[in-house]
Structures are given as structure tokens and as C-alpha cells.
């Protein structure tokens, strides 16, 4: 049981690090694009030539989709009164009915998806 707990803890730490990194990279990317837009508006207001940011390239769009996909999940953990972990589940957001996987666009509805549900035996109903 201790080995399983250690393995789960390591996997959650790795996933949380990926999520944190994706959030940071996406925030930096959006900030740079906003800065380019503000700089272009300032240049235009001063009568200089303005270069506005264009649409995302296919590579930038794929990267942005990857960042969003890495951020669209939560790991829920249940504890008893003593503070021991008694269960866990993963909640994610996705388009399970999409015909093609990301990065291809889809009109399929976004849905919450619960997976990896585990509860230790004494706490099951």
C-alpha cells in the first residue's frame, strides 16, 4: 500500500508540474501578444507605422491547444477525519464526442469527464 501511495504521489506531482508549466508558458505567450497589440495601437496613435499581431500560425495554435489540454483537469482527494486519504478521482473537461482529436476543430459539446475513481474498501457504500 505504501508503494502505491508513493507512486500515485509521484505521478500527481509530475502532472501538477506539467500543469503549472503549461499555465506559465500560456500566460507568457498571451502577455507578449497583448504587448504587441498595445505597442501597435500606440504607434498608430502617434502616426507611426503599426504592425498588429496576426492570427496564430498552425504551430502556435497546436501549442496553445496543448497548453489548454494540460490545464483542463483536477485531481479530487477525499480525506477522513484523521486526515488519511480515503479516495480520489480525476475530473477533466473535453469533447468526448468529437470525431477527430485535438488540434482539429470540433463543434461537439464540451463535457465534464470523471475518471480514475478509487476509494479504499472500508469507505465504500
Helix-strand blueprint:
Elements: H1 2-45, H2 58-71, E1 73-79, E2 85-94, E3 111-119
Antiparallel strand pairs: 1-2, 2-3
Helix pairs in contact: 1-2
Structural notes for this entry:
The protein has helices at residues 2-45, 58-71, and strands at residues 73-79, 85-94, 111-119. The mean pLDDT is 83. The protein is elongated, with a radius of gyration of 21 Å. With 125 residues, the protein is α+β, with helices and mostly antiparallel strands. Helix 1 (2-45) crosses helix 2.
Spatial strand arrangement across the major sheet: 1-2-3
Mean pLDDT: 83
Radius of gyration: 21 Å
How many helical stretches? 2
Proportion in β-strands: 15-25%
Order of helices and strands: HHEEE
* Count of distinct strands: 3
Largest sheet: 3 strands, antiparallel
Structural class comes to: alpha+beta
Question: Residue share in helices?
Answer: 40-55%
Low-confidence region ranges = none
Distance between the termini: 21 Å
What form results from the Cα inertia axes? elongated
List keywords for this structure.
alpha+beta; single chain; 125 residues; three-stranded antiparallel β-sheet; 3 strands
